[in-house]
Structures are given as C-alpha cells and as structure tokens.
Amino acid sequence: MTDAEPLFEDDTNSNDSDKDELYGLTSDLCKKAHFKIAGLLWITVMLVLSDVFIENIMIIIPGTSIAGCTTNRGVVIQATVIVLIFILMSIFF
Question: Global pTM?
C-alpha cells in the first residue's frame, strides 16, 4: 500500500458524505427536538423573569427583591422555580 491510497472507500468522496452527514444530523435533531417543551420553557422563563412575577410573587418572600429588583436570594429562587417547572414539564410531556 502506498501513502496515496485511501484507507476506506468512503474517503474518496468526502465532500458528498459531509453533506449527507450534515443533512442527516439536522433532520435527526429536528425529529428528536421537543418543541412543545422548548416553547413552554421559554414562556416560563419569560414569566419568572418578568417584573410582574418579581413585584407580585417575589415580594411575598422576604429578602428576595428590593425596589423591584431581585437580590441574590431572589435570583436563586427564580432559578429554582424555572428548574422545578422544567422537571415537571419533562415528566408530564
């Protein structure tokens, strides 16, 4: 075997196989993606990070917001709410 010989026959058409692999990867991603969960998660994040949530819900828990802005404790509680809702969505959807 010389140095110029391909090891596998697929190596000769690398441009065509790269296009097929990219198409296959993209189509598999679209088939396996959970668009319902992604959409609901986006809506949940927008709701939890909104001023309405901060001013009406976070104010109930002391030390989570000051003058309409969240403190470090408030950010942790927001992240916890988002994660818990994501877990529930993963279980039920």
Answer: 0.66
- Residues facing residue 70 across a β-bridge: 65
Which residue matches tokens 């976070």?
A: 58
SS3 72: helix
pLDDT level of residue 2 (50, 70, 90 thresholds): low
The dihedral formed by the CA atoms of 67, 72, 78 and 79, expressed in degrees to the nearest 10: 160
All structural domains of the chain with their residue ranges: 9-92
Beta strands in 3-88 (DSSP E): 65-66, 69-70
How many percent of the chain have pLDDT more than 90?
53
Q: Dihedral sign, CA of 37, 38, 40, 45?
A: positive
